[in-house]
Amino acid sequence: MTRYFILAVMAACGAVSARGGPIVVNLATAQSFGILGGTVSNTGTSVVNGNVGVINGSGTITGFNPTGTTTNGSVIAPGSTASNNAYTDFVSAFQTAQGLGSTQSYADLTVNRAFTGNNVYTFVLTNISTVSGITVTFDAQNDPNEVFLLRTDGDLTVNGALTFVLANQARADHIYWIVGKAATISVSSSGPILFDGNILAGTSFTMSAAAGGSGVLTGTVNGCVFAETANTLAGTTNVGGCANANTIVDTGTPEPGSLGLVGLGCLLVGWRMRRARAS
To answer: pLDDT of 49-88, one tens digit each?
Structure first.
């Protein structure tokens, strides 16, 4: 029995040594921004929770104060130190997220999909387009700290309303959409859309409006929206902003209590093996 126990603990020790620490992407100063990019344009009565900013003095912000408004933040002057630093932190976080190892993959988003927390999901197709009416479920497994990272190398186009299900304490601000190029939410005739998660795009972000004029509610993004080139909001787009956005994903790190017990077991096994050799 003792021999089998030692073998089991040795296997656990090997598993611990093979696992790295948490994989972290830090948004740093970008957390205070609801929308950030090369340019920001708004054509309706949009509301952004957090700051609005662009990189360097050549970036432009149009359609705010009084048309678009901010809450818990302000429109930061182009080229300010705060905006430049935030943009640098965003790009760093985006590049780090792109480099994370994929833990699971799906072909596309044309059928109902379910995601579990603390995973990096990569879509096989370069450009992803959704269809109206599908359901995407995020399961945090009763841990509100679990995070979801969904990544595509090319464009993400959301065609019409999706149904988001946040199960077992999943949180919208812990969902990250890492889009290699352009992210577009096209409301079309489906009416207002609710989109959960933070969007980090390599080129542009566009939120289109439903028919009926610039005052028509386009939808709500429960998260922050960052794009390296241009951000465009139409109609009434509500951007919820970042929250608790320091850690994007922690894949497979054992709980501290379990890790400590396994480590103690490793020490005891090593001590016992040394004694056996000495005798």
So the answer is: 999 999 987 799 999 998 999 999 999 999 899 999 999 9
Name the H helices within 99-222.
none
- Tell me if residue 151 falls in helix, strand or coil: strand
Q: Which residues, at least 6 apart from 33, have a Cβ–Cβ distance to it below 8 Å?
A: 50, 51, 52, 53, 73, 83, 86, 90, 224, 226, 241, 242
The alpha carbon of 277 is separated from its chain's Cα centroid by a whole number of angstroms, namely: 52
DSSP state of 244: S
Three-state secondary-structure class, residue 165: strand
211 pLDDT tier (thresholds 50, 70, 90)? low
The Cα 90–Cα 25 span in angstroms is 10
| Residue 114: other Cβ atoms inside 10 A | 12
* DSSP element (H, E) containing 271: helix 256-278
Residues 6+ apart with CB under 8 A from 102: 120, 121, 122, 151
Q: Report the alpha-carbon distance of residue 103 to residue 19 in Å, rounded.
A: 14
Ordered DSSP codes for 109-134: SSS-EEEESSEEEEESSSSEE--TT-
Burial class (CB in 10 A: 0-12, 13-18, 19+), 240: buried
CB 173 within 8 A of CB 198: yes
Kindly state the tokens that stand for 223.
């998260």
Residues in a beta bridge with 194: 220
Q: Alpha-carbon dihedral of residues 162, 163, 165, 166, nearest 10 degrees?
A: 50
